[in-house]
């Protein structure tokens, strides 16, 4: 932690706690906050088509945190075209290559992290702090918050075995380091053993019920202590990508390219957003041979091997890609 010179400042509870605590520990060594936000006003097609139902909220909280901590706050406002369509798409290609995927849920989030990391490198940062892991460990996701006293601890333990985060491999590919305090073995041990109780993770804070209750109670002074969890794609604005791809990719393009993907590569491309990503995935991997394919435990949609312990295909995003067992 002592060498961190920047934080990827989403403005959520996790980066609020991480950055505020880190600033207390290392003071002026933490100089930089980086936030990526999609400004609806600069995305004409998505905006004119009514795809933005609200202004992305990450920037609102991120600014408050940066001001509180006296950080040099770099606000990046790429357009969706620049990230996904008509730009050089080098950031998206990096994500496809490093994560070996054309899954929309993964890439809508990863491209934001990659864009911020590339910028961090460009301004001379070396080690970047992220808030990864808190949602998985402390029931930050809404579906975890609905689990029973018996099921949530079991799910959390299993989650630790299968959870992956894009920041570390993306940073490595860029020659950077990432520090994620919630992934410290001591935090993981607490969240899966001594503190693995539903009443510590889910409950009332302020005027509503939240996940990550123990974190909110431990750091009530954090700027985002009362903020409701939002996925990266919602907080920054890339969540409109599925609907935008429907407008940008014609029905004819989709039908022709999806047919070719199935006939030539044995890959099912289920929607237009996936096609946007599959075009890069195909160029990076399939046209040149690709990463290790068909195995005994292969995804029925794309033919790539499934990770142990999960019913989700990390390559194409199919769920469930194998029967779900309780």
What's the SSE blueprint?
Layout: E1 6-8, H1 13-26, E2 32-36, H2 44-48, H3 58-69, E3 72-76, H4 80-84, H5 90-99, H6 104-122, E4 127-129, H7 134-137, H8 142-145, H9 151-162, H10 167-174, E5 177-179, H11 185-194, H12 198-201, E6 203-205, E7 208-210, H13 213-218, H14 232-236, H15 241-248, H16 251-265, H17 272-284
Order of helices and strands: EHEHHEHHHEHHHHEHHEEHHHHH
Distance between the termini: 39 Å
Q: Portion of residues in helices?
A: 40-55%
- Report the structural category: alpha/beta
Q: Estimate the mean pLDDT confidence.
A: 93
Strand order of the largest sheet: 3-2-1-4-5
Measured by DSSP, the beta-strand proportion falls in 5-15%
User: How would you characterize the largest beta sheet?
Assistant: 5 strands, parallel
By DSSP (H or I, 4+ residues per run), the number of helices equals 17
Describe this structure in words.
The chain is an alpha/beta fold and 326 residues long. Helix content is 47%, strand content 8%. The protein has 17 helices and 7 strands. The protein has helices spanning 13-26, 44-48, 58-69, 80-84, 90-99, 104-122, 134-137, 142-145, 151-162, 167-174, 185-194, 198-201, 213-218, 232-236, 241-248, 251-265, 272-284, and strands at residues 6-8, 32-36, 72-76, 127-129, 177-179, 203-205, 208-210. It has a 5-stranded parallel beta sheet with strand order 3-2-1-4-5, with helices on both faces. β1 (6-8), α1 (13-26) and β2 form a beta-alpha-beta unit. α5 packs across α17 (272-284) and α15 (241-248) packs across α17 (272-284). The protein is globular, with a radius of gyration of 20 Å. The two termini are 39 Å apart.
